[in-house]
Predict the 3D structure of the following.
Amino acid sequence: MLHFFYSLFFRIALPFVLLRLWWIGRTNPEAFVRWQERLGYVEAFDEPVIWVHAVSVGETIAAAPLVKALLRRNPDIPILMTAMTPTGSARARALFGDRVHYAFSPYDTPGAVRRFVGRVRPRALVIMETELWPNMIALSRQREVPIFLINARLSSRSARGYERVASLVRPLLRSISWIAAQAEEDAGRFLRIGATPESVSVTGSIKFDVEVSDEVRAESSGLRAALGADRPVWIAASTHDGEDCQILEAHQQILEHFPNALLMIVPRHPERFDDVARLIDAMGLSLVRRSQSGSDGGGKVGSEVYLGDTMGELLMLYGASDVAFVGGSLIERGGHNPLEPAAWGIPVVSGPHIFNFETIYDRLDSGQGLFITDSAESLARCVVHLFSDKSSAQKAGHNALAVVNANRGALEKVVDGIVKRV
């Protein structure tokens, strides 16, 4: 009954959702492009595909090593990647070019999902992390499509929310062929809200299998040389509205101790690039934008703030910094993935709101590779400390990298698990 009312509500809301999509598309055309795909009107495939669903940029990046491994194992099976956001779709295209197919994920109404599944004919559905869409799962299962929830995580907050709609969630979880949980705590929460023990495994997080290629290392080294190899540089990555002002205030305080310090700030969403640029100007800080910084990427070396206003370069930008603050954590967004800066061997700094990645942050914390701050003042103190005490910064960076290396191996387990079940 709850599933019926869920679908009814989504049908009623759909015209308003599409209207909002059109409205956003007036200023961000990418949001409205290929809107028909969101209703299930996608290209029909001649042969069944492995459907990999990653809702946005973070999940798309997390899925990338998995997709690459599946392409190596089964090069003859086509892969379709879907996302809900334009940035997620664009990131997938940047990563894979024409090696995979792309579409926007259908809205979760019975009609849209039924059309989508009928045209795509998935051989398997691979869902990244915790995207439990009732109609996507139920209608795929009706067609006997094996469903895999990969890199599955479930915070205690989310588990409590799902428990309130247990009659809807329990049959969904029991339709999933395999839940590859990041940690024992995640597995326990999935079991608590209705998953069956035989469908749940603890594989670890494939995010620990992050690799920094020689090409990315060379590009990062070139950027750092252009920015100034001897100046202290810190990055604030994946920032959200409500954090930028605190970060810029912290940088003003850092400049009192290190007048030549550089902040690289990278907003999470591209539609905020111009807003953040205006905020930087309003706070009296000199600015260069990466998109306008010339062929070497460095721009005016004397600038106080470097705005990362391009897509798909965050891993490279991390490597050009000495300290990394990971955003979405000074406000209650739950934080973002800290493993990319950790893989560079640089100290990781975060705000206190990290419930989306609590297991990963716990491991970094216990491994002494993490610093937690809760305000502009404490963030400034932390960065000043790490700039001043290079041995402490180097040790924290080594510790962060050690945590990454100690937890590698989940990717192979996940790929093996998928291949033997398809």
In short: DSSP finds 17 helices and 14 strands in the chain.
